[in-house]
Predict the structure.
Amino acid sequence: MSEEQKQAENRARPTTEEFRGFVREDWSERRPQATEPAASAPYAAQRRAVVSASFPRQRLIVPAGGLKVRSNDTDYVFRPHSAFAHLTGLGADREPDAVLVLEPTEDGHEAILYFRPLGERDSDDFFADARYGEFWVGARPTLADIELELGVTARHIDEFEGAAAKDAGEVSVRLVRDADRELTARLDAARVENGAEQESLVEQDDALSHALSLQRMVKDEYEVEQMREAVAATHVGFEAVIAELETAVEVGRGERWIEGVFGLHARHQGNGVGYDSICAAGDHANTLHWIRNTGDVADGDLVLLDAGVEVDALYTADITRTLPVSGTFSEAQREVYDAVFAAQEAGIAAAKPGAKFSDIHAAAIAVIAEHLHAWGLLPEGVSVEDTLDTEHGQYHRRWMVHGTSHHLGIDVHDCALATRSEYMDAELKAGMVLTVEPGLYFKADDLKVPERFRGIGVRIEDDVVITEDGCENLSAAMPRTSADVEAWIAEVREENA
Ligand code: GLY
Ligand code: MN
Ligand code: MN
């Protein structure tokens, strides 16, 4: 007997016919889960209409993806593929293995959601299936529930493969390939069997994924509202962290304490964190993606907290505040902080319709370069203009290597498949949601910076929506100037005293 078989043997539960009969009987009528259409339904329908118009007479397949094993028989919490969430309006952990098909019709497409509906109580599925069964993971929606909730046609997942293969060779099929690798392999094999060439398949599928990614660049009003909720929830999480900063110092491994406090509120108010929180005290702030969060927090440190709540609809905030644990910035900390703040102000001022996306970075980095020059950190004879020269300069990047902005939405780095001309070089338009997040990172072992700056890392990150005549800072309620941050910490401490 193999190890695997032994293990399976270990866990097997004996089921007699008598038991099966007993467990199936005497359940009351279950109540329907969905009672009205989802608030997202008309918006998702509109998004599908846009895709439909771009790919007439083609079958478009957008899988949610499947459960992913964490270890042995335990899965990660499910999160649907972002394109699937965008086109269905389904969020949170819904629905593993589902597939949205836009089936071509005479005058557009019919949206059909194939998924695993609620199992009947006389099926093994009801109580015996630990991965999907109602006894184990809760009741799933019925076909009727999904039709009411989403306003699409609902079908059993078992009908999907047949439907996907219908009129094979005649209907052109496009698929979001990275959502469900196994499904992609199966469909590829079928399409190749029907005469398609693997390479052209990939090209044709990538065009769909690209279009879906690009489509998310301008948010509709429902999405902007979700972003507002994500930011408001994130604000709550940051204040909870501020209230716990002194405890974080006391308990040791304070970065983990901060991660936990923020995570508690993210999970309580929304689906969770939109990305692993960066909870970086002191020199850790100079490691850009410090998510290990194993460090202590000391009284004189700055804590850089980069964190965002993802709401149930899966839109996430992405906000950074750099907080003096003592409640007051030291002189050197304030000097660096104020420079980053000035850069952020310049970046936010550049975020307006008609400007290019890259203008935000250009405005912010110029301010960073000016400060570095004034501090005498650039090489001898290098002016601000010289360092900003993209071909020959860029010395300033030693202290701010990342970009100032990215699109934000269902993915923290949203619209990632857009090309340079569609993203960096494109004009900003009303409805785009972006971060503005300059920083300065002076590592403790950086001998090029004055000693007083060593070990100080600062980033300030806000989420803005482009409006008709500028931008609105969605996170404006979270204090940003050094003086306002100090007052904020004092106020939260007072409230929690
Ligand atoms: N939290 C990742 C970022 O700011 O882009
Ligand atoms: Mn960001
Ligand atoms: Mn961030």
User: Anything to note?
Assistant: The chain has two domains: 17-216, 221-496.
